[in-house]
Specification:
heterodimer; A: mainly beta; seven-stranded mixed sheet; four-stranded antiparallel sheet; 55% strand; globular; B: mainly beta
Chain lengths: 115, 117
């Protein structure tokens, strides 16, 4: 079974703090993704990575950065947290089959509250 | 670029009734199509996906979906729902082919299915 784990289920931070969200997958997947999920907006892609040290902006990268130093780990960084970054954050991973259409496997999510 | 429209934000049904959750997409290129489900307080998991071949796709938990290219739709159906099917359902697309941006999914806004006794 593919397992994607996220470092925290719930996190409360203060405005201006630097926040790290960690994601680890155990299936040697090439691709990893960070989404945020907000009611009525669905999932929106923040960043994704298709290889170690490679990253690409998604639809809403402003205010976020990422790091992928090892294949199994993908970190999302909020350099200076703001209240509008209060959200559910979901990490996912997928194989790069070479054909496309690969299933993404999701972690349980981190609910971040910024006060 | 792709976009996905889920026509109903909420669908309430009674247990053992049939249900259809509607999904339409827009894309300038051919796409792969997915349905994911999110149970309360959990991450998303794949229900089913269409890559090629038969346009009727069967997934887990008795769900199925039909790809209609002319209507750019991929509606999800189940003939008889259970209380345990209460969840949020997301339709998603990705462009055909591999490499880089082709691995990205574009999601709809979700449909909350509530099954009542």
């Amino acid at each position: 079974d593919v397992k994607v784990t996220q470092s925290s289920r719930y996190l409360v931070k203060r405005t201006g703090e630097k926040v790290f969200l960690e994601c680890v997958q155990d299936m040697d997947h090439e691709n990893m993704f960070w989404y945020r999920q907000d009611p009525g907006l669905g999932l929106r892609l923040i960043y994704f990575s298709y290889d170690v040290k490679m990253k690409e902006k998604g639809d809403i990268p402003e205010g976020y950065s990422v790091s992928r130093e090892k294949k199994e780990r993908f970190s999302l960084i909020l350099e200076s947290a703001s209240t509008n970054q209060t959200s559910m954050y979901l990490c996912a991973s997928s194989q790069a089959s070479g054909r496309g259409g690969d299933t993404q496997y999701f972690g349980p999510g981190t609910r971040l509250t910024v006060l | 670029a792709q976009s996905v429209t889920q026509l109903d934000s909420q669908v309430p049904v009674f247990e053992e009734a049939p249900v259809e959750l509607r999904c339409n997409y827009s894309s300038s290129v051919s796409v792969y199509l997915f349905w994911y489900v999110q149970y309360p307080n959990q991450g998303l998991q794949l229900l089913l996906k269409y890559l090629s071949g038969s346009t009727l796709v069967k997934g887990i938990n008795g769900f199925e979906a039909e790809f209609n290219k002319s209507q750019t739709s991929f509606h999800l159906r189940k003939p008889s729902v259970h209380i345990s099917d209460t969840a949020e359902y997301f339709c998603a697309v990705s462009p055909l082919g591999s490499g880089g941006s082709n691995y990205k999914l574009t999601f709809g806004k979700g449909t909350l299915l509530t099954v009542n006794p």
